[in-house]
Every structure is written in C-alpha cells, then in structure tokens.
C-alpha cells in the first residue's frame, strides 16, 4: 500500500476503533453479538470456531453495518478459505489450499465490490452511514478519494487484521484461565459483581468495562504469553547504534516481541500465566513488570490501531462466558506457535449453563 494512502487508512482505522466510538455504539454491538453467539452454546463447543464467528460478524458490522444474516454467513465461508490459504505454501499448481484461497478471495472481493458500489450510489444521493465504509466513501465530506478497488483492499485487510488475532486471544484466555483455577475464580467474582448490579439482559457499559481491574490483568497476561504477533519488521532509515552494535541504514530488522515478553529479566517466571504480576501496588519482589517493554500491539506510528477494540472485545467475551457458563476441557489440547499461535484442536470445551439465583449466585 502506498505511504500516504497507508497513513490515511491507519488513521481511519484508529478513528473507528477508539474509545469514544466504543462508548457511543461499538461496545453495545460487541455485547449484543457476543450474547447472540453464546445463546446457541450447549454441550460441546469448539471455542476457537465460536470466537471466529463473533469477531467476523463484529468486524462486518463495524465496517459495513450488516448484522449476521445469510449474506454474512456465506461471506464468512469464503473468507475462511482465504485465511486458510494465507498460511499455506503459495504454489498455485501444487497447493489446492492456495488455489482455493485465490478463488475465494476473488469471490469475497466481488461481494464487497457490490456493496461498495451500492453504498457509493447511496452516498452520492446524500445518504451516509456511520461506519468505516461510510468514512471511506466520504472521509472529509467531499468524498474519500479512494477508488472502489482501494476500498475493497482495505476492507479485506481489516478483516484479516482483526479476525484471527482477536479470536485466538479470546480462545487462549479461556484456555489459560481453565488451567489456572485461582485466576478463573477471581475473574468470575469480579464479573459476577458487575452482572449483579445489572439486569440479566442489560448490555455492559463503558463504566462497567472500566471497573474490571483483575480482568485487565488477565488480558495483559494473555497477550504477553500468547504473543499472537511474534514480532514486527522495521527498516533502518539511518544507521542505528544499539547495545554496541550498528544496524546499517537500509537494513531490515525483525523486532521479536515474543523474545522480550518471555525474557526472565523483565518478567519473573516468564513462562507461567500469572495475571497478578500486573496488579498495581503488588509489592511481591519481582512481581511488578515494566510496562514499557510490553508491546503486544507493536509500537510507534505503526502501532496496531485496533489495540483498544481488541481489549474491549476480549473483556466483554470474558464477562459473558464466565457469568453464563461453567466449562471443562473436552479433551487435551496443545498450544503451538508455528506457523501461528493457536491450539491444535481449536479448544473444545463442554459447557454448562450456570444456574443463578438472586444476584448471580451459583446454586
Ligand atoms: C489481540 C488482537 C490484536 C493483536 C495482538 C494485534 C497486533 C498487531 C501488531 C503487533 C501489529 C503490527 C504493529 C507494528 O508494526 O508496530 C498490528 C497491526 C495492525 N493491526 Fe492489529 N492486533 C490485534 C487486533 C486488531 C484489530 C481488532 C484490528 C482492527 C481494527 C487491527 C488492525 C490492525 C491494522 C490495520 C494494522 C496495520 C497497522 C499499520 O501497518 O499501520 N488489529 N496489530
């Protein structure tokens, strides 16, 4: 993507995933779509698949204002083929996965092009929706200046950026919590208290989100251990001296976020899941972690524009899963880190609805 175009796209994404949009309507959409998805949960649930549905539908809603329907379902089926191809060897003739992915990408791009064309017509007639597509078509009130092709590319890029990352982090948070019962029960207590203040079907508000300190420790710790994006590439635009070495101008560097997040110097007992290490005023020696080396969303001007949205999505997901269900792993599942961070079996669990009496007490 060209430099200035890329900058505009970055700032547009920021403006559609910031806290005021979240307060205004996005949090309500997230709450509604998470609930809607969980309504169908009984017995054995493949957690990763459900998390993927939630994040896909949410992104489509955020980008184009569509609620889950047959069209979004079909789009998701094709889109999943594109994602599969993302991680396959790109040999057109030999890899059926890659070939299928190329065909699916064409179908998804065609479906999105149709939507863009329709919306451009509406926008020219003065109609404007308050979503990402609306902004792309009319960024400054004079038309956004993007071609249809650029918009489709951008929509596809955003679908990719937010989908796999957020759904995997949701799944892994639940896996880590299941393996750390003390953390799960503290999180449940915090979320039950929030639910007890509200009606059963009432959506979470921004104030609720801001009153989840322990949940935020769980979010941090999940991001730290999982390292969904293991590192970022940068190119040195001048000679850089670092720790006695020189990175010459023009060199490409891979900055490993994983290496920092699992460094014992910064995080004591770095490989264990310990959400308490993030608690402020925790005076246990070695328990406080230096926040300035914690960069799961990268850093600088390229920092992930979806960082806040991802945190909110995960927090809302955790709220609903712990207040509505108890669960057990359906079978052993292993965490793997290549080619991406994920669990081998998509995290199957057996769920049971929590029977609550009065203000969220289990009977
Ligand atoms: C747990 C979830 C997520 C993680 C761990 C994550 C992590 C990252 C990282 C490490 C980068 C590279 C940043 C850099 O180069 O410094 C990135 C870029 C990006 N992310 Fe995310 N992300 C997540 C969710 C999202 C979501 C929900 C969105 C959609 C709103 C999103 C949109 C993007 C975009 C558009 C970029 C490219 C930014 C640019 O190159 O200017 N991400 N993300």
Automatic annotation (TrEMBL):
GO molecular function, a single term: oxidoreductase activity, acting on paired donors, with incorporation or reduction of molecular oxygen
Protein name (Swiss-Prot/TrEMBL): Uncharacterized protein
Origin species: Coffea canephora
Keyword Iron: yes
InterPro entries: Cyt_P450 (IPR001128), Cyt_P450_CS (IPR017972), Cyt_P450_E_grp-I (IPR002401), Cyt_P450_sf (IPR036396)
Compartment annotation: Membrane
Membrane topology label: Single-pass membrane protein
One GO biological process term: brassinosteroid biosynthetic process
Family note: Belongs to the cytochrome P450 family.
Entry keyword set: Heme, Iron, Membrane, Metal-binding, Monooxygenase, Oxidoreductase, Transmembrane, Transmembrane helix
Needed co-factor(s): heme
Residues annotated for heme binding in this entry: 304
One cellular component (GO) term of this entry: membrane
Pathway field: Hormone biosynthesis; Plant hormone biosynthesis; brassinosteroid biosynthesis
